[in-house]
Amino acid sequence: MSNPTKQEKEYWDRIASLSCICCRIDGRFNPLVSIHHIEGRTKKGCHRKVLALCAGHHQDGTGNDRTMIAVHPWKARFEDRYGTQEQLMEMTNHLLGEDK
To answer: For residue 57, which of 33, 40, 37 has the smallest C-alpha distance?
Structure first.
């Protein structure tokens, strides 16, 4: 795994400032997020293919609301509810004004 660059870490800070993308969809603002790599942490460009997710949307059974659908281990249910991870990444970039 390569370490994220300064620019990638700055990108992470910007997406984290938006709140958990899934909480946003649910009409909430949750700034307590971690960075989720949508294609793992070893592929080239992996540090730009990320989402800001709160604990409950990232790992099952964590966070204050344990009823949330988490990407780990419920990827299919998560994507049925919120859209694909790629779509969520596109939504995040749109919110940042970084549409590609």
So the answer is: 33
